[in-house]
Amino acid sequence: MKKILVVDDDRTIHAVLRAILHKDYDVHSAVDGLQGVTMARQVKPDLIILDLQMPAGGGGSVYERLQIIAETALIPVLVLTASSLEEAVKRVPGLPPERVLIKPAAPKDVLSAVSQALAS
Fold this sequence. Notes:
Layout: E1 3-7, H1 11-21, E2 26-30, H2 33-43, E3 47-50, H3 59-68, E4 77-81, H4 85-91, E5 100-102, H5 107-119
Parallel strand pairs: 1-2, 1-3, 3-4, 4-5
């Protein structure tokens, strides 16, 4: 079963994503940027779902750190944010627009984006 790491400071988002994904994926959670980077190195997920606005390292800085660490650099990242698509792409240089989901995202959109990110 593929592993997904959700990095978001909102525990409700964790619960919603776990409910959407738990049948098909092993879902792990981190509540801030520092914990997200640490867990990414430990868990070695197949995909990271990352919020942009959170304490202990916003999503942009977490994304940058993940890209420079050898064991996490190739893990695909899907950004789930309340910001606009334009703002998300600006805050995370190099992130493809198709890897951005705007909150609140419909369950079918989450599943589709996860599936596409894992396939690429």
